[in-house]
Each structure stands twice: as structure tokens, then as C-alpha cells.
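For the sake of transparency, this paper describes our internal protein records without simplification. The record that follows is passed on verbatim for readers who wish to inspect the format:
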Amino acid sequence: MDDNKPFEKLKKIKIAPKQAKQAPKPKPQPAPAPEVEPDEGAMFCSAMGGVQPIKGRSGRDLTKTPPPAPETLQPAGEQTGEAAAKEQLRRLVAGEQEFDLEFTDEFLQGHVRGLDERTLRQLMAGALSVEAHLDLHGCNAEQAMDSVLFFVRESYLMGRRVVLIVTGRGLNSPGGLGVLRQETQTWLTRDPLKRVVLAFCTAQPRHGGAGAIYVLLRKRKKSEGKVKFDRTSFWGD
């Protein structure tokens, strides 16, 4: 080997190619946790945590309130005491009281609504004392009307409570019908007499039976307004 050529040896030496530096392997990533839906209740509580209620106002109650029970109107027949008596009297004086009527060929009966049943039974049984009577035999319709109007008016003003009107049975009338008997019922239930009449019915046989009528008048009080007895009220307009 020639010592004067030192680089000749270097040419014969094989240098291994320089290897590229390998990047470090990435660390495995943990599996993502499953998504959990947020708790709406917790979120609401969290959001409202610092809210203070307004003083003097309460929250709205969303529960359904049952509708109020309808007001029960007490029937007039069930009213008791002084208030009921005053109301009935007011209706009588004003001519507003209606009559319940029942009649056949041999029987008739009428009374203002709300009248005490015991009093009506006593009247029908003839148990109430008759204080005066009017006999219409021999009268035509117009004469009978004037007589009934005058008789009832005088009886009411004198404080009588039960009177008797004898109409006759009308057996000799056309068809055997008692015209005056039917007319008397009409007069008693029409102004002005209906303002003072409480009830009427066919009399017991000892007082004339089907040819006579018991009439129950209301009690007159001086503090009440006057009842106008007008003959033309019977005829209407």
C-alpha cells in the first residue's frame, strides 16, 4: 500500500446509506364517551337558581277548577216564614197570583198557587164557618155579576174570610149547564176579585152542593194598599 495515497483506502470503504428518522408511533386515543341527553329538570333548576319570586303575586294554578254549581232556586211553595207571606201578599195585590183550577159538571175548585193545603182541605170539607151568603137565583148574567162584585167587595172590607155564593145548578138552563156557576168561577179569577180571593170550591150538600160555592177571602190589613173594585174589569177592553 502506498503511504503517499492515503485517500485510496477511503474510497474502498462502503458507507451505509443514512436512514431517515422514524416518527414516533401515535398514542392510542381513548374511545369517546357516549352522548348523554341533558336533564331538562336539572337544566331548568340550574338556570333558575338565582331567581327570586315576585312578592305579592302567586303563580297561576293550572289545575282545572270545577265549574260552580248552578244556583238552586227555591220554589215558591217551599218558602216559609214572613218573607213568603209578604211575597204572596204582594202578588195577590198586584194581580200576579195565578190560580190552579179543577172542574167537572158537578165540581169546581180553584186556589192560588202556594196556598196551605190544610186550609184548602178545610174549605172543601165545609169545616170553615160561613160568615155570609149571596143567592143569585132569578138573576141574569149582568145582574149576577154586579151582585157578586158588590158582595165580595163588602165582605172583604168587613173582614169576612169565608162566604157562600149560591148560583143554582142550572138544571133548567140550555143543556142543563149552570151558566151562572161557570161565570162566577170566571169572575173570581179575574181582576179585581182575584186580588182578594184565595180559594173557592163546590159547597157541601148541606150548603147547596153543586149549586153553591165556598169562597175564601184573604185577610184585609189596613197597612195594605187599597184594592180598586172596578166593574169594567170584568168586561175587559
Helices lie at 7-12, 40-47, 81-94, 117-124, 141-157, 179-188.
